[in-house]
Amino acid sequence: MNKNNNFDFESFKREAIKGMYAGKPLNGEKGIFAPLLKHFLEAALEGELETHLQEEKAAGLSNRLNGKITKRVKSLSGEFDLQSNRDRSGSFEPVVLPKRQVIITEELEEKVIGLYGLGLSTRDISKHIMEIYQMDISATTLSSITDKVIPAMNEWRQRPLESVYAFVYLDCMHYKVREGNGVITRAVYNILGVSLRGQKDLLGMYLSESEGAKFWLSVLTDLKNRGLQDMLIACIDGLKGFPEAIAAIFPKTEIQTCVVHQIRNSLRYIAEKDKKKFMADLKPVYQAINKEQGYENLISLDEKWAKKYPVPVGSWYNNWENLSTFFKYDAHIRRVIYTTNAVEGFHRQVRKVTKTKGAFTSDTALLKLVYLVVQNISEKWTMPMHNWSLTLSQLYIMFGDRIAGHLNNG
């Protein structure tokens, strides 16, 4: 092959044909087309730098060629050393192949990101890429490829929201993240909304270092700054400080504490031998026809069990106002709001992908994977929730003045 700037196509053609008959692959680590791609890239980079230097000279800036640099490049056409000129000031930013980029095929990068989003480890991805493309990619390179989703993730986390959501659910997942020489626990809080069209939408994904009213206030303020004006009913799992934060930012929002979480928490205090009898007396409380009947049944529960189990019975009294919100609605709305199952179901899907992970290398690595999983799951959120027309009719009766002007937009 000719060493000067003029590529010897005839020589390349002869070598390529010879290689094909010898069984040499077209693509891959020692692919036949690698020299051709190398020539095209080096020529393109030379042209870009020449244009850049001319523009700087026209702008009165002093800059010139300053030697050459070489970097190892991987592509579907093969792996090779790419040589290019550099400028003295270091202001040149090539377009055809950015300075820190060593993978030059979007197809391969999309494949890597797709596999990462399915929860595969870097070792499994490297093995897969080697099997399919005959290309060896290091863990560092894989990380730099998946980092390309970070700008899209940040943009998604800051995107404008619809003005009104019918229901908003909140729940969290816990993960291990490496910090220094140790491992810490991080909580990823996801806020799942249901629009006035009945479609699910993950409104926000927040990493919590410390929970409480101040944290929730910042979360809700962020949602409001992104365009959320109102949420009709917020379904929560009893997180401390969240009802107060909602009242401060969205004072009209009705709060429904998850009944299923309340039941689970109650049973923690009940001896195994009493659980069946206790549940038999508890069911009439949350399965009552209306709030008044439910409260009467709570009094009966109190009379029978409070002396033996004061903590769980007292918890139902203390949280009754938010536990009983769902009683004012028809059966099909009750089923939707009395529990945070909607967001918990979403989390089960996320955990299917993330369950193989031990400890994440950083907070960013954690958010990056959860974001990619969210994108895959949300592709299926195209249809409204079951019986949405009936649900919307009920909501219009209850909140007509708050949603009338938003129905066409939402």
UniProtKB/TrEMBL annotation:
One Gene Ontology molecular-function label: DNA binding
Q: Does the keyword DNA-binding apply?
A: yes
Q: Does the keyword Repeat apply?
A: no
User: What keywords are annotated for this sequence in UniProt?
Assistant: DNA recombination, DNA-binding, Transposable element, Transposition
Which GO BP terms sit in this record?
DNA transposition
A Pfam short name: Transposase_mut
What is this protein's function?
Answer: Required for the transposition of the insertion element.
Q: Which family does it belong to?
A: Belongs to the transposase mutator family.
**NCBIfam families, alphabetically?**
transpos_IS256
Q: What is this protein called?
A: Mutator family transposase
Q: Per the UniProt entry, what species is this protein from, by scientific name?
A: Mucilaginibacter paludis DSM 18603
